[in-house]
Design brief:
about 325 residues, mainly alpha
């Protein structure tokens, strides 16, 4: 096994890969961001009626229309939308507290009924969003490891390798213990006695996740599902700190670039009042976030290379 590559070299190589595959990555990111926005729109369309109904009944139709107009104006600004959500939440809480018990029960029953009707569609599209996010990582990994720069080839390879990568992520996630905190969370919410077990349930994940993080890259290089997980555990022995430290630095570097891009875009979007143009800015902001994810994923591939033999996509 070769000596680990210095962090600075890994950061530079990841940036060079992003630049070399820029066109292909850009087209894939643009398509993924657009699909994500479509799915979120469908979810919003099913969540919207119950939310609209509850706001109309609690705050009144006139106040609801005012909030709607303000949200339309601030649509392209994440900070503006956050403030609207916070202020509306406080208003709803105050108005709900002042209601008489009978009306409060009627409003709750009406809203819960509407939510129950929309829940199956919303959950289905949330699952699709999670699968899209996983496929995006597969696309970014192919961008890091595939020699070519053709967008169609990367899309084809990402789609073909996605089932295997998804299986690897499931196996690695189970072995890392990511499910333990979710198992203890209901108990911790039910009783403070379980707060300490809930916090301790994160320990296996914190220890094991970095050691299994190389699995998807190795799966693309060698194929298989269980073998890449075993190889990742073997290759990362004694290098937990290096993996965690390097990934934190890469995440901070990517986050800083994304934050700067979003700051500029939100500043421009705050001047836009046309809904169609505001939607374009939301799409561009989603692309910026995915660009940061692409850099982190490519860095992971470079880190795997730095911890051993150069990974290349398996021909099969």
């Amino acid at each position: 096994m070769s000596a680990p590559v210095p962090l600075r070299a890994l950061l530079i190589r990841s940036g060079q890969t992003m630049r070399r595959k820029g066109r292909a990555l850009f087209l894939g990111i643009a398509a993924a961001a657009f699909l994500g926005m479509l799915m979120q729109t469908v979810i919003a369309q099913h969540i919207g009626p119950p939310a609209e109904q509850s706001l109309r009944e609690v705050l009144g139709a006139e106040r609801y229309e005012e909030i709607l107009r303000e949200a339309t104006i601030r649509r392209g600004s994440a900070e503006g939308m956050r403030r609207i959500a916070q202020n509306t939440g406080r208003e709803v809480e105050e108005a709900f507290r002042k209601m008489d018990p009978a009306r409060r029960e009627a409003v709750l029953s009406s809203v819960l009924g509407s939510v129950a009707e929309a829940l199956p569609v919303v959950l289905s599209f949330l699952v699709l969003l999670l699968l899209l996010a996983a496929w995006e990582r597969a696309f970014f990994l192919q961008g890091a490891l595939t020699p070519g720069t053709n967008t169609g080839e990367l899309l084809h390879r990402a789609t073909r390798s996605f089932p295997r990568l998804l299986a690897v992520w499931v196996v690695a996630g189970f072995l890392s213990g990511i499910w333990l905190p979710f198992a203890f969370l209901p108990l911790a919410l039910f009783s403070p006695v379980f707060a300490i077990p809930f916090l301790l349930s994160w320990v296996p994940f914190v220890f094991a996740a970095p050691r299994l993080a190389l699995s998807p890259v190795l799966a693309l290089r060698d194929g298989g599902i269980l073998q890449p997980v075993r190889e990742s555990w073997r290759r990362s022995r004694g290098r937990w700190g290096k993996i965690v430290g390097n990934m934190i630095v890469a995440a901070l570097a990517a986050s800083a670039c994304v934050w700067l891009a979003l700051l500029i875009l939100q500043g421009i979007a705050s001047l836009v009042t046309t809904p169609s143009i505001a939607s374009v800015f939301v799409w561009i902001q989603a692309m910026a976030v995915l660009g940061g994810a692409a850099y982190r994923t490519i860095f992971l591939a470079q880190l795997t290379e730095g911890l051993g033999q150069r990974p290349t996509v398996a021909s099969r």
